[in-house]
Amino acid sequence: MKVTIVGGGLTGLTVAYYLGHAKPDWQIQLYEQAPRFGGKIQTQRVDDFVVELGPDSYLSRKTEMTDLVTDLGLAETLVSNETGQAYVYDRGSMHPIPGGSIMGIPTEMMPFVKATLISWVGKLRAGLDYFKSPYSLDENGDVSIGHFFRYHLGQEMMDKLIEPLLAGIYGGDIYKISLLSTFPHFIQVEQKYGNMVKGMINAKMSHQKAGVSKGAQGAANVGDVPRAGKDTMTDAQFANKQAAQSISTQTSGAMKAAKGTASQSGMFRQLMGGLESVINAIVEQMPSNVTLTTEALVSNISYKDSVYRFDVNGQQVTTDMLVLSTPPATYKAWFTDDAGFDGVRNMEQSSCAIAIMAFDKSTFDGELKGSGLLITRKTDTPLTACTILNQKWPQTTPDDKIVLRVFIGKPGNDVVERYSDDELSEVALNEIQRIMNFEANPEWIKINRLIHCMPQYNVGHRAAITAVRDHVKEHYPNLYLIGTPFDGIGIPDGVKQAKELVQRLSR
């Protein structure tokens, strides 16, 4: 059996790695268009700094990535993040995220009453959700995140809490992003209990009665509701989201937002040498029946007589089985006359940039609160979030330095695509100085621009992707589609897709 994998990001590499071990008699070829493997995962060393230009971590609760790290012999290099209070910056003021909340949904009375972020009018409006009936979903059982939570919690809660948390994860317009494709558990909770506040309170109480401790509550099923997206916070905010992967997805502030306050142990994982050490280990340990090729442009894919034909840098290649682990844009060049692929190739994608800046601690004149902050979309700035890396991941930074990881890019704002790196550096520095109230200048700034790299799971996404896969199953035997356009944008999501595909092919 001759197998071809197109796409050398983490997902494609994971397929090659496990399939090569499972099927040692198969001939497996992986092609990557870029000059390096790893996709959005990119780690650099700058003097004594470990700098992640893409996702910086993954959610440990989703064990697929940790299992891969263990299989590669890197488990001893895993580290957890340091925790801290999360903040939201809203039009000139910094506020702690209310305690006792799950992705902004209040589940405890007093922390929410004392919260400075939401006005009394906004709090009363959110409380009225206790008497709300379920939202009327569309014919596919779907609704946008924005419309769903505005209906339940009101406009102010949407603007100041829900949108910074959830829109940042997926890097898009919260009034377009599908709740069914991103946080389906919220729909289930609402349908079971009638509304969100009542549902989250009851679900929380049921877990407490079941003996789930307060510290472990996030690992319970209800905790899974917000955490379904939190591993993509880094990915989503950088992308990506990221990551978002980091993938993924975004700041320590977003990371803590599920509960509103710091927890005793970090729920994200990183490696001492950075996430790219996983990519390097996969490449180095790839089975001998797998061939890896970079700078390989794949085009003109066709299927006839049970064989796939395509060109690699202009040379025709054939294969028995084809695995595509590529962004939606690639499908615009492939299967051009087949409308059955419209659901993936017409997906919107968002852009963002990351500005990473290092300061000398002795000359830094600002106050570093917690581990990071989110910025409301109505604040007049292209920035969406900031992580204080030396407090979130101290092993990446010398003791006498401060490192800020600033995320740039909002829906409808084209500065990421229009500005030069120097202009983005200037904007990021000036804006974060204003927001965090300091004047110190950095020793260095690194910019990573991620253009059209975050697939948007808009309303109808699940139905559209199901239609694409049904079409492929009927008309394209031995063609498999995986990656961020399909079943999750987080790092563990990609690994999970890869391992599930290998299991199917190994039966």
Can you describe this structure?
With 507 residues, this protein is α+β, with helices and mostly antiparallel strands. It has 3 domains: 2-39 and 62-67 and 271-347 and 458-506, FAD/NAD(P)-binding domain (3-Layer(bba) Sandwich); 97-207, protoporphyrinogen ix oxidase, domain 3 (Orthogonal Bundle); 349-455, Alpha-Beta Complex (Polyamine Oxidase, Chain A, domain 2), CATH 3.90.660.20. α2 crosses α19 and α5 packs antiparallel against α6. The protein is globular and about 70 Å long. The two termini are 14 Å apart. Residues 212-263 have low confidence and may be disordered.
Question: How would you sum up this structure in a few lines?
Answer:
By secondary structure, the protein is an alpha+beta fold. The protein is 34% helix and 22% strand. It has three domains: 170 residues, FAD/NAD(P)-binding domain (3-Layer(bba) Sandwich), CATH 3.50.50; 111 residues, protoporphyrinogen ix oxidase, domain 3, CATH 1.10.3110.10; 107 residues, Polyamine Oxidase, Chain A, domain 2, CATH 3.90.660.
Low-confidence stretches: 212-263
Q: Tell me, what is the CATH class of the largest domain?
A: Alpha Beta
CATH topology of the largest domain: FAD/NAD(P)-binding domain
Distance between the termini: 14 Å
Helix count equals: 19
**Secondary-structure arrangement, i.e. CATH architecture of the largest domain:** 3-Layer(bba) Sandwich
- How many separate domains? 3
CATH superfamily of the largest domain: FAD/NAD(P)-binding domain
- Major sheet: 7 strands, mixed
Residue share in β-strands: 15-25%
How do the strands of the widest beta sheet line up side by side? 8-7-18-19-20-17-21
Any idea what the shape is? globular
Structural class from helices and strands? alpha+beta
Quaternary state reads: single chain
Radius of gyration from the alpha-carbon trace, in angstroms: 22 Å
Mean pLDDT comes to 88
Helical residue percent?
25-40%
Number of strands: 22
